[in-house]
Amino acid sequence: MIHETIQGDDVPALGLGTWQLKGATCYDAVRHALDLGVHHIDTAEMYGNEAEVGRAVHDAPTDRDAVFLTTKVWHTNLRPDDVRAAAEGSLRKLRTDYVDLLLIHWPNASVPLEHTLDALLDLKAAGKTRHIGVSNFPPSLVRQALDHTSIFCNQVEYHPFLSQAPLLDLARTHDFLLTAYSPLAKGSVMNRSLSPRRALKALKQDSAPADRLANALKNLLGTGTGTLQALADQYGKSPAQIAIRWLVQQDHVAAIPRSSDPDHRAANADVFDFSLSDEEMQLIHGLARSDRKVDPHFAPHWEA
Ligand SMILES: NC(=O)c1ccc[n+]([C@@H]2O[C@H](COP(=O)([O-])OP(=O)(O)OC[C@H]3O[C@@H](n4cnc5c(N)ncnc54)[C@H](OP(=O)(O)O)[C@@H]3O)[C@@H](O)[C@H]2O)c1
What we know:
Strand content: 5-15%
Bound molecules: NADP nicotinamide-adenine-dinucleotide phosphate
Low-confidence stretches: none
Number of strands: 10
Distance between the termini: 34 Å
């Protein structure tokens, strides 16, 4: 396992995502991940599975202190009283006195960011979370947060088909973790080609006109998956394992792939017996094409 050292604390660079994992599937996934040595678990009040995550962490032989547990406060709960109530509810369901990381799940422009951050800082001072952070914050909002206090993490979508270069610069300069969600691009890294519908969506989202055609063509041709497959063949791994390795090998980056399948979970954890060369890392960076998978109506302006 690779660890990222952030502000002097070690975080496992590979975690388990749990969005959409419910009931026994969620419980089994968390128990299995911990057995595999994946001691980093990501949940959120919005996922509706904190009780199962908490029961699995509680029942597992792994010491609670050896697990890096993250949860998140939903964007409609960012007023200070609501933050406190949400965090208390999460801790109760998670059966723990503290989480390792408490995140603002999405920004909400109708609540002053400083008020929410102060509420999180109060929870940290009370020992209810070891660290505080944000999720889905574009660079401008990260800077606004940093003007007020230091953050431990920004959790954002990051995979071979979506660059996060400006946020990575900020993460390394200000020593916070960039946790890559949807690290497998929701399964796209395994697809040989992408649909024209997705290509058109990416075309519409791209702000730099000169790149639009190239991005759309890359999407249509699915060239990225060809590159990942070639590297996978070379290392005797799968494209998913290449994508995960590429992420966890980056400084200040952790990845939290989700899987309901035990074989997939075992494969996703089996990425520490090889490494990608600098040239291969750059080759994968070159696949970025603004292929954003998570973009709800309440999302911030990503390029801000
Ligand atoms: N902060 C946020 O707003 C936010 C947003 C989205 C996600 N997240 C977090 O990030 C986590 C991961 O993102 P995600 O769930 O969107 O997508 P993801 O991890 O990129 O992809 C999950 C998909 O990949 C498949 N998969 C996983 N490992 C595989 C393997 N080795 N081979 C083949 N298929 C594989 C899974 O299917 P199987 O189940 O069949 O394996 C599932 O369909 C979430 O669970 C959540 O914890 C956070």
